[in-house]
Amino acid sequence: GLASVSPDGQMLALGVDTAGNEEFSVRISRIEDDSTVDESLVGVGYGLVWSHDSTRVFYTKNDEAWRSYQVWMHTVGGNTEDDVLLYQEDDELFWAGIDQSRDGEWLIVQSESKLTADVRLFSTRDPEKNFLVYPRHTGLHYTVEPAGDCLLIIHNKDNADFDVAVAPVGASTPDSWELIYQAQPGQRLSEVVAFQDFAVVNMRDAGSMQLRAFARSGEGTTADSWQAGVVIPTEDLASIGFYGNDVWQAREVGFSIESALTPETFQRWSLDSGAVVTVKRTEVPNYQRDDYVQYQEWVPASDGVLIPLTIVHRADVAKDGSHAGILYGYGSYEISMDPWFSPTLLSALDRGVVYAVAHVRGGGEMGRAWYDNGKMLTKRNTFTDFVSCARWLVDNGLVAQGRLAAEGGSAGGLLMGAITNLAPDIFRVVHAIVPFVDALNTILKPELPLTVGEWEEWGNPIESAEVYHYMKSYSPYENITAVEYPAILASTSVNDIRVSYIEPTKWIQALRDTVTNDPIERPIIQRTEMVAGHGGGSGRYKKWSERAAQLAFIFDQIGVK
Fold first, then answer.
1. Could you give the CA distance from residue 104 to residue 481 in angstroms, rounded to a whole number?
2. What is the distance, to the nearest Å, from the Cα of residue 248 to the centroid of all Cα atoms in its chain?
3. What are phi and psi of 146, to 5 degrees?
4. Contact 437, 413 (CB under 8 A)
5. 496 is catalytic
6. Residue 205 bridge partners (DSSP)
7. Which of 410, 475, 493, 500 is catalytic?
8. Mind listing the pLDDT tens digit for each residue in 445-461?
9. Is 239 among the catalytic positions?
10. Is residue 63 annotated as a catalytic residue, yes or no?
């Protein structure tokens, strides 16, 4: 879960989680001979950053609710009792995360809730030299990317879909943040990476991911020093992420790209030539991309809003209403379900299955408003959007009535439970992965891991009767009815700290006690990994084994050999 090489290139700090509970034991070793230098750090949270001189590491600790709330400094080879607490986040709504500037000069400490954030920068040479970029203001969310003698700041002060601005290094006010680029309607800025001579923004435009590069002239401390952004050529309907950009002086940016039909591909864009070069593409034996097609449709929701639906199938599939289908969804936390490549998907496609991803409200595909209209007291839009996409697949002949599966995990598991109650007749089988299906009871218990921070996503049913009754109207465990349901598989893990295995266990039993299913024709079962966490079992073979079992259950129900 954690891996960081020291600035002098001599040591590797590696964090390992052996239980699945997302806490790590850290081993610091000398790279040359793999000898252990220090293994005293245990119970460490996400984030591991080296000091400038390679003698210390910065790390986070979690509280009893598994909230990352402390930032510590440890001297390599020293006693942990001598570690120095640099920062503690006392507000239970907020968690603290750490990162490092590309020039190695700054430790970035970001405290954030779902709606609000602030950033402190600590010198990696002398952490006593530190400053708060701008104090916390409710509703103002910003991130900071140190860029040498200035800071690049992505913020929502004037624009719900965020702008990127520049400011001098040091404490500042939003009034001193000079605008470099403003998100236009249909765009959403999410991340910026800065180098000595340029910066690249990762953003969305009309639902698709996009990279936009800004060249720098002079010191770069004013907006005039940053040239107009250039769009880097990429692929539509693809996921894009940065990789391997650790060199401050680099004049290239590395990024990875993949889609349902494009295996993960590592590319680099040159500031000097403007060319994109493919460095490596994941090899997939016996795969012919031209055998398949992927495209996007826009499906009218129950209130008329158009929902993006990504569809993948073999090129020879006809819209004759005879095929099996799998519809995937998530729709929470402003997280976008951009396409990804999976060999197990090819296994389904080669059997004639139509695969689709519903980009429902509550996700981030179409900007901040898309998220806002699928959370809190508009959460039901997430569920009705998914049902509209399911009906569209059947009505347009892509999937046969009675041969459609639904799949989603975590908050997407909440989606699975909700749509099963909402429209049990549409789906033949539902796979709920680590599902958040007892949402109301969990959010009513602030002592449970991570609950307090969730109130800005779902609302606080303890303080608000309106939130309580609204959550009760859709929480899957609360709304099971005595009719025939789809076959259901719930996949969970004992050590999951994000969604307790207790939730699907209660849900499955309540389903068995209530629904009218023939237990042979439409079984309701739970599969529990005894040593795993929110991400399931560890290692590729374990994950392949888990996925094979899941697909076997789904295929059996939708009539796929």
1. 57
2. 26
3. -60, 135
4. yes
5. yes
6. 187, 208
7. 410
8. 998 888 898 999 999 99
9. no
10. no
